Amino acid sequence: MERAQNRSTGRQTNRPGEPGTDRAHRPAAGQPAPADRGAAPRAELELLVHGVGGTTPEKMLGDPRTVRVTGDDTAAVFRRAVDTEPGKVPRGEPVREAYVWCNLTSGDSSRALWLLLLPFMVVNLAHWMRPAATDRPRAVRLYGLLVRLTALTLTVLLVAAACEVALDLVAWQCAGAPACARRHTWLTFSGVAASVADGGWWSLPGRRLALAALVPVALTGLLWYLSRRTWSAYESHRPMSREPEPETDGSALAMPGFWYGRRLVARLRAAHTAAGLLTVAAAVATPATRFDHRPGGSAALNVLSWLLTAALLAGAAAAVGVVCRRGRSENTLDQALDRHLVRRLPLGALALLLLTALYAGWSRPGWHSTGRLPGDPAFGTLMLAQGLLVIALAVVARDLHRRAPDRRAGMRGLGGPAVALLACSLGGVMSGGVAQRVAGWLDGTGALPAGPPVLLTWQASTIPPVLAVLLLLGIRLGLGTARLARAERARIRHEHPGEPEDPGRTRTIAQVRAMATLTDRAPLVVAVLTATTLVLGALALAGAMTTGTTPDGAAHRTADVLRAAAGTSQALGSWLVGFGFLLFVTWGRRAYKDASARRTIGILWDVGTFWPRAAHPFAPPCYAERAVPDLTWRMATWTQRTGGRLVLSGHSQGSVLAAAAAWQLTPSTRKRIALLTYGSPLERLYGRWFPAHFGPPALAALHRDVACWRNLYRRTDPIGGPVRIPDDTSPEVDHGPLRDPLAYGRTAQHPLPAPILGHSDYQADPDFERERTCLLARLRPEVPVQRPEPRPDPRDSAGGVG
């Protein structure tokens, strides 16, 4: 009977007691550790971790017959079936295992809807882009606090935009205008259209507002549900508890509680949910309060309005206090949960919302819905608060950068504030565009009384100028890439002396190399977008404040021209938002179905979802909170049980997971690990944008802690690059740029044209097998092996990527 095995899906596992399982008993104290079943005679293991594109264990291991060693359908470790059979492993070769984690980020195409929460993910990134200074703990805590407060304003902005659409445009303006209500027959389900004409029960504006509040309440509940569900699926995986050992000075990723943020996420989820519900309550209560405060209003309702306002302000203060009171606890594995706070704060906000709905629905003779709801002051205050928070964040970030300057850091330490500003502007543009689009749809007959708030209208008008700036920036980058490609052609001709030149082949290679350098222009793109956003945001705020003035003479004609241009831009911007929504969903579905599209679209997405939710609880879930503990447990238990050594081999984003998992090991276990990275963004992306966790000191400490490390990259790779370990006195980490393509023309070894591999298929290069063999040799202290010299390559003098 053939052994139970997984040929393609990995849904079956070995039976208990069969080779290849992880159910061996730990040795008694003082006894030698038994050899891992199915392992090589030297107890050597190579653990492969794939990148963002995803793959199958059969492709990773180069064998159609694979067996799942440990794990589940979401993430698992596989071996070749032959490696589970004793005596069939060639002597001197390591056992190879593949950790497959692609289901953590891909899967059902409905996950594309996470793209709608892009502002939340972007502001969460800003938390991790803090400069690397460690001697200012108060400034570090202040930085995290400012980012958390900025994230809270984004939640309020999203719910306020939903209130603007449902409460103001639909329930207040359209349902209050007979022509608009009769035109949109779907309003008749609640009797609104009829009540406007005959004075029915729904004719009271407060009752329509209470009914329409179900839309933003449902949105807030959906965000709470998604956050809680993913919290249970990802943050519930506890990292391995470590014995107390002296730690080396390295990255914060080595702290025991770094990948276990359940307590903070639960607190932030409660605070953001309460803030969203209180925002809805304020939107429902404000019109009724204004009516009750007029001269001659009901004294009882006036007193009740003041009490309700005080309760709403107290609830808002409680939500802000929860956000401010506690940040991440990374020094220890914090397993406590603030259950009373997590439950009572959202329930208290929901109770206030219900009381507000009852208060607004009370009968008030003479109350009619005219004009628009007071949304202009609310959105203006939000925009101003976001601007002040970003400015304060920039001041703190600049101070931290001066304390620990890093010339490779993106935007000289201002990457975090810039990304936070982009998150705020993205939320504002999406809110303004959606409000403008819905208002245009409702106002088919010109019967909508006032339309959306002026500030949202101006924010929608900024979309075409932003796209124009991006177009100009794209033209500049394209021209620069073309010049670099021309320079690369001469370099490529010198790299292949004596071979007949193929102009088409030379142009193709040069173009791929030049295009690969666009990744290093990301700071320029972010800086231009930040400056554009800052200027257009100020203009939108100024335009909203000056709307309604009546200039005279030439100023009047100039104002008419500007008003016409703004109107055209607003209309175009509202249509672009609708188009962008469809584009987001389409790209998201394609990214989760097509591997090539995923590699193109998913770079930013996988970088963003790598980090835990430290600032915004409604951001997409962090897959590393499952993947890093998986790798750590596998490496620690295998080395403890077998006493062997292993090579941790990571490609692309898999190299980042490998480094994070190595940091989570004890220092003594790290010394048994060799790290092989290829196509790695460790320094090129993570080191530049997240210097506090992947900066030069952190990477240098990781190099000292592991037994040995080798990094491979190509000049044609748009993602991977050198890791640039500073003051490297031990064997160098970075290998010279690998040859790509492997042959310029047709040769005896390559009779057909060799492809340009770029970011993929690093194992196809002969240097890969050579470097892996050298790492294994360096892991065996009892076998002295001299490191072979790398083959000469004329491109080594040209330097690496980045």
TrEMBL record:
Biased composition (Low complexity): 27-39
Chain residue ranges for the region called Disordered: 1-39, 722-750, 779-802
Domain of life: Bacteria
Residue spans crossing the bilayer: 149-172, 209-226, 270-291, 303-324, 345-362, 378-397, 418-438, 458-479, 522-544, 564-588
Keyword DNA damage: no
Keyword Iron listed: no
Alphabetical UniProt keywords: Membrane, Transmembrane, Transmembrane helix
SUPFAM superfamilies assigned to the protein according to its UniProt record, in alphabetical order: alpha/beta-Hydrolases
Biased composition, class Polar residues, residue ranges: 1-15
Name of the molecule in the record: Integral membrane protein
Organism: Streptomyces monashensis
